[in-house]
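Protocol step 4 of 6.
Sequence for protein-glutamine gamma-glutamyltransferase (Mohoua ochrocephala) entered exactly as in the expression construct, tag removed. Do not edit the line below.
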Amino acid sequence: LAATQPSTNWHLKENAREHHTSKFSSEELIVRRGQAFTITFNGTEKPEQNLIFLAETGPKPSKAAKTLATFGISSAVSKEGWSAALQSTSSNSVSISISSPHNAVIGRYKLSVQIGSSSPASLGTFVLLFNPWSSGDDVFMPNEAECQEYVLEEFGIIFAGNKNRISGFGWNFGQFQGDILNICLSILDRSLYYRQDPVTDVSHRHDPRYLGRVLSAMVNANDDQGVVLGNWSGKYEGGKNPSSWTGSGEILQGWKKSGFKPVKYGQCWVFAAVLTTVLRCLGIPTRTITNFSSAHDADGNLRVDEFYDADGNHLERGADSIWNFHVWNESWFKRNDLGPSYSGWQVLDATPQEESGGIYQCGPASRHAIKEGEVDLDYDCPFVFAEVNADCMYWNYDSASGKKTLIFSKSTEIGDSISTKAVGRDDRVDVTSDYKYEEGSAKERDIFKKARKKLGLEDKFDPTAPTQEEIEQKPDISGKFKVAGSLEVGKDLNLLLVLENLQSDAKTVNVNMTAWSTLYTRRPVNEIWKDSLSVTLAPKEEKQFPIKIKYPEYQQQITTDKTIQVTALCHVEDGIQVLVQRNITLDNPAIDIQVLGEAKVNKEVVVEVAFTNPIDTEVKDCVLQVEGSDLLRGILELRIPPLKASEKSSTKFKLIPSEAGPKHLLVNFSCDKFADIKTFKMVNVIN
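Step 5 output, structure tokens:
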């Protein structure tokens, strides 16, 4: 006898509450693995008849691949596989509690029931996710506040700027909004791994290690038509400037809407933020990490080389670089392949910098392995180790002769103020000591030597390396740039070059100075200013030289990263050259948000955004962009009339919050003179 199609009650509200999935707005059941959920269905004449359930996922479900499970009703929850227990029965319906194993493949499942000898009847579909609340899961996170932050929180702060001046901006991860879960599942089905062998790929989806690596490749567009196309040229025609995004939703939805064509454009924080959204959505605890003075060691020798010409211009030579900051991810899971001490936070990096296994993917690298210099462990530890530990060599390069001379080397430059958002607060937390032992300590140098040894660098002669003699040479003078006054776009930039004679005889110094606008990767874009001076320093004398770069001089040249590299190359007569440099990140003018009145669920509330034009010329093409999960749907874009010098604009708009609790409103203001002025405000929504 063929059974009639049963109708299923998925108990969406109750199951979602038990499984921490209430924030998804879905008509489909979304549950976490290793935990029971309840369903009720009718169409069973005699429920005590033999019921057999089938749960299947992927293109060719099979028991061998653990993508098909068949299970009957039993009194005990199975430790190994899927199981079902009878909750209650009535005349024609039955309530069943179904449990999946802790290591079940995640994704969308089809659930069917076979009643007696009839053929299986479909009960419908549900989605199974990772379960950080369950002690048997590889992603188990014992601290509830951390689960709230790293899985359920839709707002984040990403740190940027440079090590002298750290700034943070808000980001709307929005992992529970609209169609994001379905988009995340389709990312998995478009990876190279799935295309090459769908059956094997799906069978590996129980493993956060595997998924983390696959997604680090899929979030960038290289190799696989992934989500975001990187662009570090400073020119962003045909797409959006990476600094203009305020959340992942627009990017992920744009990727889907365009028929899965890469979204233009991203830079490191965009890749990291999108990867955070996808991993939190699937239930893997994840956060963004910012590393200041981050090394991109392209040739794997744990050394980055920077080249300058005699005039002090930073040359684009060689593939190595030092970025003002770089953003990557940490995800929390067990490393069954490496052993318990390597479990916990794992580094994943979706920014396409170097290939790994032939494609642009990076990680998971155990953070503990990085700290201990265990660079031979999977995956990509040498690259991540270099990002926070590489030694820096600064060279003078003469293009005519091709000769390079070491100016100086520094082992404490790289990997500074490694930062992430605090749990439950909008503050910065410094995690540098989780990546390395104290800079300059004997232990830190020992770990560096251990890593070099494991990479075979200790015993290999490197003709490009400076000699010990070059490294140990001592300069006659020292120099530094000091900031005098404010660092704001729209204001003149005032600096002091401070030079000090370290010797007890007089020194004559010729100084060539340049200022270039750069990207945050320190890639030079436009020359802003240059000058030179000659000075004689009496024994032990210190002198200060004021430098002024006027706003009109840099206004046309500056990039939206608002970064300027100032360099002074000091040629000391009969002595070695001294390089003085400083990377300056300018602040945007302020923008202010006020919520006028109380924010209540499903009630209108007015928000006012105010901006004052700080410069003495008109600004035009003003656009205000607003977003915030549970405060408004999608993105609100408002055009604002031009503002005369010193004029203040005030813009009002309405929100209708959809959920109670602390929510974040993100604002991005742009005009022809200022790009992407960002701010955020916490809005406490009450019922």
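Step 6, annotate. The mean pLDDT is 94.
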